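Fill-in record for Molybdopterin molybdenumtransferase.
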Amino acid sequence: MSARRIEQHREAVATLLAPLFQTRSVETLTLSSERLAADPDGFRARTLAAAVASPVSLPPFDNSQMDGYAVRSGDLTAAATGTPVALRVADRIAAGDTGTALQAGTAAPIMTGAPIPPGADAVVPIEQADPPRFLPPTTTTGTVSFAAPVTHGTFVRPAGSDVAAGDLLLPAGSHLGPAQLGVLAGTGVTEITVLQRIRVLLIATGHEIRAAGEPLAAGQIYDSNSVILTQALHDAGCTVVARPCPSDDAADLLALLTAAPKVDLIVTVGGVSAGAREVVRDALGPLGVEFLHVAMQPGGPQGLGEIARPSTADGDAAAPVPVVSFPGNPVSALISFEVFLRPLLRALAGLPRPERALLRAPLATAVESPAGKHQLRRGILRPDGTLELVGGPSSHLLHSYAAATVLVHLPVGLDTAAAGEPVNYWSIDD
């Protein structure tokens, strides 16, 4: 059987996950500084499921854009260089103060963000006053002079100039970044409806893997795949339950699935090749997961399908769950995630730019590639705009991946490319 092309397998994975787009659940989050402090991860990579109208105007009152003096513009009509107008200094107004009405012939020291007092209609910056500094707060009498007129509304932020009460604050589908969360908090919104995160069970497999900090016996390695894919899934807007399976026994993997909580998607890493003890293939093949080869390097061995999980620990009724299986070499696993899962999961989470932009630049040096495979090479974009490959094509070279800022695409049919030849690439330095 010939290898499947990348495009075909991408379509197969998209078809497998299509039901998740049709059954997206929503949840309500309480928005407060206390909730953010207690559960900062709860607001990571969130998308609004329902539009939010502003309960108040923002700003809620006319306020000062500058440190200076609140004045009546009519008091300074005659002000000019050589014939300044002196006004009596009124009580100081700080941010958070209510202030009192400004009388004609007076100027009130005012701080940035403080409410414009009734009667005032402009603010003169402190550096344009004489003296160009505030009088001590203990001063009970004093004057300040101005050598130029001021226009009505100067350095005044009108109430509702950002958003008016009842206006659409954020539409459904908005990604909640810092600015969006800030405007929700700034208008006093306390509850928002968001898309529920896709829950993923991540199982890195292999008799040889051990957790960081454990001593390694001969032939054993530290489990990097759980860390790699957990972070990649988090960045794609998922909630992750990582359950490594340091065994090549299918019964151990099936027992782990039985004990795991309810999830929307299962991702496995390792155990999908044609070896004698391939734990994922042995355990999930009989349940309906298909294992095949994709014409890509690294990341050729792949698996996908849907399984009816055994009865779960929480007593949930068995339900079909999609499974996506990646090869076990760390670079193969991460590139497989980039190619097949990342765009779909980001789209499910409502995150912006689910697909990486396909860019183009010339190679810095010549390269060879197997003509029958779509090769993805790690590289960097040099200051001169050329692509420099980092490390070789092998799937164990994780350190070179960590140094890379791009993935270079060498498509099926390309066996050699000369220096200066343009090729496609993805930026991965976000």
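KEY FINDING: The domain at 6-21+197-348 is CATH 3.40.980.10 (Molybdenum Cofactor Biosythetic Enzyme; Chain A).
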